[in-house]
Design goal:
This protein is of the alpha+beta class. It has one domain. The protein is 38% helix and 13% strand. It has a three-stranded antiparallel sheet, covered by helices on one side. α1 runs antiparallel to α2.
Length: 180
């Protein structure tokens, strides 16, 4: 009678089977949550890189639109000189090239230097005229450098723009070289 198993039937799941199922399900859900967090981090990193690219393109177009005032952009650093707004923009007389460059630098630095929700965390913009003539065409080039803290990757050391004065190890960098 004790050895006869033909009359025993299991009527449901055992407690061990339910616990194993819960552990497997929990591990799967933790994996999904980790992928979601990683996706959000990467999405933010892509956003900041896009903003840096847009800022560099904006300044390149401003410099190209002011051919007589191009020398006034050289050496600009948003950490040192924020520039000033110019009243000639709203006047009917228009701006001379120097005033237009001042206004462009002021407008360009505003989203970078904003104290309330800057477009790039810890952002900095630098404009330099490069006199090295890399392509031997006899013309100068400008280099627009954008630095920012990449909060998505706080423990990574960035050094894409080695040699920038004041660049900190955890600052990401975007550089754009162009001919005016």
């Amino acid at each position: 009678m004790y050895g006869d198993t033909t009359h025993c039937r299991q009527a449901g799941f055992s407690l061990i089977e339910i616990l194993v199922t819960m552990v497997v399900l929990s591990i799967g859900l933790l994996g999904v949550a980790g992928m979601q967090a990683s996706g959000l981090r990467n999405n933010h990193a892509a956003y900041t890189k896009t903003q840096a690219t847009n800022l560099a393109m904006d300044m390149a177009e401003r410099i190209r639109a002011n051919p007589k005032g191009q020398d006034n952009y050289d050496g600009f650093d948003t950490n040192n000189t924020p520039g000033t707004a110019q009243t000639c923009i709203s006047a009917n007389t228009g701006c001379n090239p120097t005033d237009l460059a001042k206004h462009d630098k002021f407008e360009w630095s505003q989203p970078i230097r904003a104290t309330n929700k800057p477009i790039l965390p810890g952002g900095r913009g630098i404009i330099q005229k490069d006199l090295n003539d890399i392509d031997n065409q006899g013309d100068d080039e400008f280099v627009v450098t954008i630095l920012w803290r990449e909060i998505a990757y706080q423990d990574i050391t960035f050094n894409q723009c080695a040699g920038i004065a004041g660049q900190e190890a955890d600052q990401a960098c975007f550089q754009m070289r162009f001919k005016p």
